[in-house]
Amino acid sequence: MDLTVDHVPFAFGDLESITEEFVRLGLEPEYGGVHGNGVTHMSVLGFDDRSYVELIAEREGKKGEDHDFWPEHIRADAGPAAWCCRVPDVREECKRTLERGYAVHGPLSGSREREDGTLVEWEMAEFGSGADERVPFPFVIADRTPLSYRVEPAASVSGGPLEGIGQVVLGVDPNRLEDVFRAFRDCYGIPTPIRDSPAGFGTVASVPGQPVAFAAPDGDGWLADRLERFPGSPCSCLLATEDLEAVREVYPLGEPLEWPEGQVAFFDSDVLGRRLGVLERQS
């Protein structure tokens, strides 16, 4: 099964302030409305391939209330909280995953209402790995209403060198890295990852032809701290480009790092750190 990234939720305590940071970086998301839970709301940074970064936070006056959209991540300004893949049929994906022996939570219904009154509806499911649900599988989504209701390319990125979400980097305990590989191979048929040791990440294992990589820290640091607090979630979201230098002419990026399949440069942001970058994969 090919993994098609639909979106990556970026969780922050205040939607206005994180939106301002994205705008400062030249990435202007569009307000997407209030979720059906009434507690969270979001903005969408949509790309030409219809993948998107979702900025999600709790609404003023609703902060601290119960909901299922990554409340711990939101309240800690954690950034990437999960990752989502688009599938034709959520029920079929649930069946396929159950047949492989993995836990399934769903199908579930979701919705949000845009400012123009349009109701956006979808079906989704979440997956675990038996008793240990820290294997960072994606959740899946299928639209009930047209995809265009949920995402349209943002003017700030449409037609430019940023193509969409190129790779989701999953933080993994180094002692469990091989187990996670086996789980992904069993469930998604991934090939053997290519490994390297980019500065600040420890071991990175990138999956050829698939939008996923695994990062295991080799000691103390930001990634080890993040894994201790948020196991089973992404640590970074990398946008795709065919020309990293062209991106650097438009957006503020740091110096490139060698990555297993190419080069990565992270946005120059104290707020985001190494949680949002750009990947140029070797052809």
TrEMBL record:
SUPFAM superfamilies: Glyoxalase/Bleomycin resistance protein/Dihydroxybiphenyl dioxygenase. Residues 5-146 form the Glyoxalase-like domain. InterPro entries: Glyas_Bleomycin-R_OHBP_Dase, Glyoxalase-like_dom. Pfam families: Glyoxalase_3. This is Glyoxalase-like domain-containing protein.
